[in-house]
């Protein structure tokens, strides 16, 4: 664990749980997916793996219900895989990452040449960090 991670975890522990509640109307929009992912990432960072998994699973359910289970919009599989690694379930984590990559491949193959974020090494990280849920 790096010092930077330890500092973030200490800060996360001071945030009251009630401040993480999501307004119900937000859940009915795509921003609700982004919020669920962010809250799940936050919970994962502070060591609350089960709560994180619940948020990632809710993200999965909503994306499937809306026929928006697109890895570029809602990369919940990658987040859930990280949670599985925290629980020592590396085989399940690998399955989720493989599913994510298989679903991502059609988007990569249909993008115009040179326009995909991975076309340049410097752009890859920025695109990955700007992805929503």
Secondary-structure content class = mainly alpha
Radius of gyration: 16 Å
What is the number of beta strands?
A: 0
Largest sheet: none
Number of helices: 7
| Oligomeric grouping of the chains | single chain
Instruction: Determine the fraction of residues in helical runs and give it as a percent range.
Output: 55-70%
Structure overview:
- The protein is mainly alpha-helical.
- Helix content is 68%, strand content 0%.
- Helix 3 packs antiparallel against helix 4, helix 4 packs antiparallel against helix 5 (76-86) and helix 5 packs antiparallel against helix 6 (90-110).
Descriptive tags:
mainly alpha; 133 residues
Give the structure's gist in a few sentences.
The chain is mainly α and 133 residues long. The chain contains 7 helices and no strands.
């Amino acid at each position: 664990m790096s010092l930077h991670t330890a500092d973030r975890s200490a800060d996360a522990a001071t945030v009251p749980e009630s401040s993480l509640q999501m307004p119900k109307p937000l859940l009915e929009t795509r921003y609700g997916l982004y919020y669920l992912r962010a809250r799940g990432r936050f919970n994962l960072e502070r060591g609350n793996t089960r709560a994180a998994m619940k948020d990632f699973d809710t993200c999965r359910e909503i994306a499937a219900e809306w026929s928006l289970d697109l890895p570029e919009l809602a990369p919940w599989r990658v987040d859930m895989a990280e949670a599985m690694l925290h629980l020592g379930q590396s085989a399940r984590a690998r399955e989720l990452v493989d599913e994510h990559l298989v679903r991502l491949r059609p988007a990569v193959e249909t993008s115009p040449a040179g326009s995909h974020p991975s076309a340049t090494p410097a752009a890859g990280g920025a695109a990955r960090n700007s992805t929503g849920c």
